[in-house]
Amino acid sequence: MNTIICDLCPKHCRLRPGDRGNCRVRTNQDGKLQTLVYGNPCAVHVDPIEKKPLFHFLPTSKAFSIATAGCNLHCKYCQNWQISQRPPEETNNYDMPPEIVVEKAIETDCQSIAYTYTDPVIFYEYAFDTSKAAHQKGIRNVLVTAAYIEQKPLKDLCKYTDAANVDLKGITDEFYRKMSDATLQPVLDAILTMIKLGVWVELTNLIVPTWNDQEKDIRQLCRWVYKNAGPDVPMHFSRFWPQHKLKNLPPTPLKVMSRAWEIAKEEGLHFPYVGNVPGHPGNNTYCPHDGKIIIRRRGYMITENHVINGHCTFCKNSIPGVWS
Ligand code: SF4
Predict the structure, then answer these.
(1) Cα–Cα distance, 38 to 27 (Å, whole number)
(2) Secondary structure of 208-277 in the HEC alphabet?
(3) Domains in the chain: boundaries
(4) Which of the listed residues 64, 97, 118, 162 has the most CB atoms within 10 Å of its CB?
(5) 6, 73, 85: which to mutate for ligand 1, most atoms within 8 A of CB?
(6) CB-count burial class (<10 Å; 0-12, 13-18, 19+) for 152
(7) Phi, psi of 243 (to 5 degrees)
(8) Which is the closest atom of ligand 1 to the Cα of 122?
(9) For residue range 50-105, what is the model confidence (pLDDT) as tens digits?
């Protein structure tokens, strides 16, 4: 009696009155599905857009970044486990309804609002209403997400989403099940839906020693991206740092990071990047037409920019992205 099923993400939690979902933030209250985190972010920061990472979307701009407690994935390596693996009762939360978030974004000179750190899927209603209010004021919206979401709510949210960095954690279902307590196919479907609906998408793959660092894993992932998302989708390889339940592993060796960068190029991807390795040549953007460095970066800082009005200033060819 009064059991409800949450259809927001592929976990489809069955909730009896008083139950919490697997994400810890959605509950059945008297037969109605309620979110416990609407208007109550536990993390609020102004970040460079490069930190998301988004390298082809309004470079050097600032993103007003918010997250609530909870997550529908439970990744063993989570970098934000102190908030993602907690219910909202165990985090320090702000009272910040959507219109205040938009006001703060304007006050702090941010061109976008980023729904990030934990996964915006689980604070869906809050992200949705904030995104809608942001567009009314000319502020853009960015999702930083594992994209473990059902198609219907995703399509609705895409109406107000301008860019996304999707964490493509691996390319096998086995990896998703063991590492994240999730499955692969809904993530692949979500990536393609976002691209189809005109969201600017960049992908991130965290390379974890012994888990997904073999050449065949990286090549298979790049092949899927090339074939399905296309060669122009930026592919960020991120270096693992021991965290949460994987403190026993070493950081990803630099030679593995460099090899991933090379493999992506061999597989035809135009914009592979190496993250969490400051000073690596894979921090920069190279023109796929003339091979020159067109955006040089140091950490999140841009030190040289040769993309003007979306074109390489050397060869004048257009560079995919959202530049203004
Ligand atoms: S969003 Fe939360 S409650 Fe809903 S199905 Fe996913 S894990 Fe379960």
Answers:
(1) 13
(2) CCCCCCCHHHHHHHHHHHHHHHCCCCCEEEEECCCCHHHCCCCCCCHHHHHHHHHHHHHCCCCCEEEECC
(3) 39-283, 291-324
(4) 118
(5) 6
(6) exposed
(7) -150, 155
(8) 1
(9) 999 999 999 999 999 999 999 999 999 999 999 999 999 999 999 999 999 999 99
What amino acid is encoded at 203 in this protein?
L
CA distance 20 to 306: 50
Cβ(128)–Cβ(160) below 8 Å: yes
Task: Report pLDDT digits (tens) over 179-212.
Answer: 999 999 999 999 999 999 999 999 999 999 999 9
CA 205, 303, 301, 100 dihedral sign is: negative
Single-letter amino acid code for the residue at 12? H
pLDDT given for residue 299 in this prediction: 86
Q: Which of 271, 211, 261, 215 is nearest to 238 (CA)?
A: 261
**E-strand spans in the chain?**
4-5, 14-15, 26-29, 32-35, 43-48, 62-67, 112-115, 140-145, 163-167, 200-207, 235-239, 272-275, 285-286, 293-298, 301-305, 307-308, 311-312
Give the largest CA-CA distance in the chain.
Answer: 67
Q: Whole-model pTM?
A: 0.97
For residue 53, whether the previous peptide bond is cis, meaning omega lies within 30 degrees of 0, is yes
C-alpha–C-alpha distance, residues 157 and 195, integer Å: 13
Answer whether 70 contacts ligand 1 (Cβ < 6 A).
no
Taking the centre of ligand 1 as the mean of its atom positions, its distance from the CA of residue 235, in whole angstroms, is: 28
Burial of residue 275 (number of CB atoms within 10 Å: 0-12, 13-18, 19+) = buried
Omega within 30 of 0 (cis) for the link into 242: no
Q: Ligand 1 centroid vs 75 CA: distance in angstroms?
A: 15
Measuring CA to CA, which residue among 91, 74, 107, 82 is closest to residue 37? 91
CATH code for the part of the protein at 39-283 = 3.20.20.70
Structure tokens at 194: 């976002």
